[in-house]
Amino acid sequence: MTPTSRFPLVAVALGALLLLGTTACGSGDGGTASAAVADTDAGSIRIQDATIDWPANPSQAAVRMVVVNGTRTDDALLSVSSPVADRATIHRTDTDDQGRSVMTAEPEVPVPAESEVTFAPGGLHVMLDPLTADLQVGDEVDLTLEFEHAGTIRAKAEVIEPGSAGDDTGAAHDH
Length: 175
Known about the structure:
With 175 residues, this protein is α+β, with helices and mostly antiparallel strands. The protein contains two helices and ten strands; from the N terminus they run H-H-E-E-E-E-E-E-E-E-E-E. It has helices at residues 3-25, 32-35, and strands at residues 45-53, 61-69, 75-81, 88-95, 101-105, 109-111, 115-119, 124-128, 140-147, 151-160. Strands 1, 2, 3, 4, 5, 6, 7, 8, 9 and 10 form a ten-stranded mixed sheet that branches. The longest helix is centred in the first third of the chain and has 23 residues, at 3-25. Residues 6-41 and 167-175 have low confidence and may be disordered.
């Protein structure tokens, strides 16, 4: 083999080594690389069952979902955004010592390794407020979730008929 004919082989081999090296550095640590994995793969953070009850109050809506951390790294949900609202804030519903329902803003939500965090009535939820779009049953709403380690994860939430998710407490959700 002449020196000129070996050059393409050396270039291909170096390219393959570089690609292998960058892939190995980006996997297994719960970082941004694992966030790009399809939501059906283990070893990633994924969003399941994201829904929004059709809002009776046209200015706000609540997102329900399950955040699944399939990694071996603890993570935290830092923020959520959506093009259908000016703001998206994470809240927790609790009951105070007088039995009243109170909402508390959550600056972040821990998502322990190999666990799930459920956003549901009477607990965690994401408030979209004020809405900038007229949501209708059947619409799909884009969500962008920012995690401490996994980075940006995109999901879609389906607008559903209130009470059709099966876990509705029957309580009105109004702020």
